[in-house]
TrEMBL record:
Pfam families: M20_dimer, Peptidase_M20. Residues 193-287 form the Peptidase M20 dimerisation domain. Keywords: Carboxypeptidase, Hydrolase, Metal-binding, Protease, Zinc. It comes from Lihuaxuella thermophila. One of its GO terms (molecular function) is metal ion binding. This is Glutamate carboxypeptidase. Its cofactor is Zn(2+). The keyword Hydrolase applies. The active site is at residues 95, 156.
Length: 396
């Protein structure tokens, strides 16, 4: 292979064989995770999933700690030490978006060539790919690494607001971090991600009787609609970021001049200066002239910074493609408009690849799925990629 310093220690056929042997029974483990309600706002359920997975990590040689974090179920960090130099991170999350009761009402099932269930793709299947990839390497006796650090987050689905700094600390200085979100529907891995921000616009006016004395009111909905129309015109043709006006709420009854209205705007960030430009946009929106008697506030929150494609990520992506080719798999890499915890790690300058989990899709929906036939090949791919991972420039 061209993109690492020395020939791989194990042949692709060795890794394929051991992966097939090591992963026997993986569907039972997947079912054990999927049958737990673990929406982010159910910290007890998320902790149950994390504790189950931590037990499996311990069983294959990880030293596992649970790090409490206020406001969520915390982080689980597994560390394994070898005799080499490279430091490799694996990153996943235990939470889902589904409300309590989903696990019982929609249990995991096979449907033709797919496995369906809440969280199978996002991202219980990927967690198991990471676990089994390490088990494969343990069975092969691979020790040419300084450290493998497996981090399990409890609140990725809501932006990792409480855990992002602790998570980045755990994975600081890694030569590569492999994020275990599902592969794209065509099997591609992810080499860049848009940043994600949310702009909340709130209009506060004055209520009045719409029939008797409407002139005493100040209509917050009308003011907000005017502002949103301006926002659309202001951002038309913008290539640094893209907006979507997602929700509008306001008013109490049709015969009352509404005194409050709120809109939430999703913003996807594509360029290096997009965060600054969106920040200026939010301030401009808040200070813009509006309906007399109405005030506007703008609250901008950064969910994920952009994960930009760069030379180090390109090097890892090319290596992954070579590893896949040696395993008889077709693989490409692509960018996506969705964010993940990879964004936070890449923003610290750590080389990342995402989408190393099984092939899956339709996340956050009743039809969320993975392709079970992809599980063993993706496990073999990650295991081979870990053995071939080069030292990043800072480590050389």
């Amino acid at each position: 292979m061209k993109n690492h310093e020395k020939p791989p220690l194990f042949s692709p056929s060795q890794i394929r064989t051991v992966a097939a042997e090591a992963t026997v029974g993986w569907e039972n483990r997947l079912r054990a995770l999927v049958e737990v309600d673990c929406g982010t706002r159910n910290p007890a359920g998320v902790k149950r999933v994390g504790d189950i997975f931590a037990g499996w990590m311990s069983a294959i040689g990880f030293q596992v700690d649970h790090l409490p974090v206020e406001g969520c179920a915390g982080l689980w960090v597994g560390r394994m030490f070898g005799k080499g130099r490279k430091r490799i991170g694996l990153l996943g999350h235990a939470d889902t978006v589904y409300p309590d009761g989903t696990a019982e009402s929609r249990p995991m099932k096979r449907q033709e060539q797919l496995l369906l269930g809440p969280g199978v793709s996002d991202m219980k299947g990927g967690l198991l790919v990471g676990l089994y990839a390490v088990e494969v390497l343990r069975k092969l006796g691979w020790e040419d690494f300084s450290e493998i650090c497996f981090v399990l987050n409890s609140e990725e689905e809501t932006g990792s607001f409480h855990t992002r700094n602790r998570m980045a600390e755990q994975l600081s200085g890694m030569d590569a971090v492999y994020v275990l979100e599902a592969a794209r529907a065509n099997g591609n891995i992810v080499s860049s991600r848009a940043g994600v921000a949310q702009l909340t616009l709130t209009a506060c006016g004055r209520s009045a009787h719409a029939g008797v004395e409407p002139e005493k009111g100040a209509n917050a909905i009308v003011a907000l609609l005017d502002l949103l129309q301006w926002l659309r015109q202001r951002t038309t043709g913008e290539d640094a970021y893209r907006i979507n006006i997602g929700t509008i709420q306001g008013g109490t009854a049709s015969n009352v001049v509404p005194d409050r209205a709120v809109a939430q705007v999703d913003i996807r960030l594509f360029h290096h200066d997009a965060v600054d430009r969106v920040d200026r946009l939010a301030k401009e929106a808040a200070s813009r002239p509006t309906t007399p008697g109405v005030t506007i506030t703008a609250d901008l929150k950064l969910w994920f910074p952009p994960m930009f494609y760069n030379q180090e990520i390109g090097r890892l992506a090319a290596l992954a493609v070579e590893c896949a080719d040696s395993l008889g798999m077709s693989l490409g890499h692509t960018g996506t408009g969705g964010g993940s915890d990879a964004n936070w790690i890449a923003a610290q300058g750590v080389p990342c690849l995402d989408g190393l989990g099984p092939v899956g899709g339709l996340d956050h929906s009743p039809d969320e799925y993975i392709e079970p036939d992809s599980f063993v090949p993706r496990t073999a791919l990650l295991a081979l990629l870990m053995t071939c991972t080069p030292l990043c420039k800072q480590s050389q």
